[in-house]
Design a protein that fits this description.
alpha+beta; five-stranded mixed β-sheet; 5 strands
Length: 125
């Protein structure tokens, strides 16, 4: 949750921070359960694209985690231009997910929200 709404519109510019062809990336959602279960996610508006570099980063974090882990690509339908000021992340749709066991990005088998994934992953462990 953004604690200080006065700073919510600051853009983080990584454009000149390169090492070869690589540059830093942020992670929008990070959950670490008591049993070390890891849920990480990228959140974009419904027109957003999960770029190849972000896909690889999230997949490598999941694959390299010692315990159970999942990465999710979450989409929302809010636009700042429309006056929307808050995204209710738990109700946002999961467009794709990557699990350590499957080692590939795929769409969920049914309509799934960010809260569904977190509940499912934390209840089964």
């Amino acid at each position: 949750m953004i604690e200080n709404w006065d700073y919510r519109n600051l853009n983080m510019d990584f454009s000149s921070m390169y090492s070869g062809n690589n540059h830093p990336s942020d992670i929008d959602m990070f959950y670490l359960g008591r049993d070390h279960t890891l849920v990480i996610g990228e959140i974009k508006n419904e027109h957003g694209v999960l770029k190849d570099g972000q896909r690889r980063l999230l997949a490598e974090l999941v694959d390299g985690w010692k315990y159970d882990a999942i990465a999710v690509f979450i989409v929302h339908d809010k636009l700042y231009q429309n006056g929307d000021r808050k995204v209710d992340v738990p109700s946002c749709k999961v467009r794709e997910l990557y699990t350590k066991s499957e080692k590939k990005w795929r769409q969920p088998k049914k309509l799934t929200t960010a809260k569904d994934v977190l509940d499912w992953y934390t209840e089964r462990s």
